[in-house]
Amino acid sequence: MVAMAWRKSPSELIVRFHAVLPADPAVERWQMFGYPCAFVNGHLFTGLHQENMIVRRNDADRARLLELPGSGIFEPMPGRPMREYGIVPPAVIVDDLAIAKWLKLGLAYVKSIPPNEKKEKKAKPAGPKAAGRARQAG
């Protein structure tokens, strides 16, 4: 398997991303794979990947988004499309009303999904080094 080197998002796109995120208290900003993203109830609804902004949407909205020039199905690795996510065309990203509409649709869709339950982290079993330190301390 060949490792792919992902490119950082352009700084202008990062600034724009943060400027257009909805001012909704449910929105949490996190980094995912080094890219800024926004989540609601543990679900990604928008984010950046290299030169692209992506948004999650329902089937009907996805079909409408894919009709726009410059859009496409989000596929972070060839042959590995991410279900429900599409690339926001550059012309939409720079249009305040258009980007607000698509982000509002993505946010509403993700809010309609049951929240992800947080999984408790399991304690890692003590490895040979930890066992050796315990014997030395005891």
Describe this structure in words.
The structure is a single chain. The chain is of the alpha+beta class and about 140 residues long. Helices cover about 35% and strands about 20% of the residues. The chain has a single domain, classed as Aspartate Aminotransferase, domain 1 (Alpha-Beta Complex). A 6-stranded antiparallel sheet has the order 1-2-3-4-6-5. Strand 3 and strand 4 form a beta hairpin. The termini are far apart.
Short descriptors:
138 residues; alpha+beta; Aspartate Aminotransferase, domain 1; 6-stranded antiparallel sheet; 6 strands; 35% helix; 21% strand
Summarize the structure.
The chain has helices spanning 11-20, 59-66, 90-93, 96-111, 128-137; strands spanning 28-32, 35-40, 43-49, 52-56, 72-73, 85-88.
Q: Counting H and I runs of at least 4 residues, what is the number of helices? A: 5
Return the CATH architecture. Alpha-Beta Complex
The low-confidence parts are none
**Cα distance spanning the termini:** 46 Å
- What structural class do the secondary elements suggest? alpha+beta
Number of strands: 6
Reading the helices and strands in chain order gives HEEEEHEEHHH
- Gross geometry: globular
Beta-strand content bin: 15-25%
CATH topology: Aspartate Aminotransferase, domain 1
CATH class: Alpha Beta
Structural domain tally: 1
Name the average pLDDT: 86
Range of helix content: 25-40%
| Biggest beta sheet summary | 6 strands, antiparallel
Instruction: Please state the CA-atom Rg, rounded to the nearest Å.
Output: 19 Å
Q: Name the strands of the widest sheet in spatial order.
A: 1-2-3-4-6-5
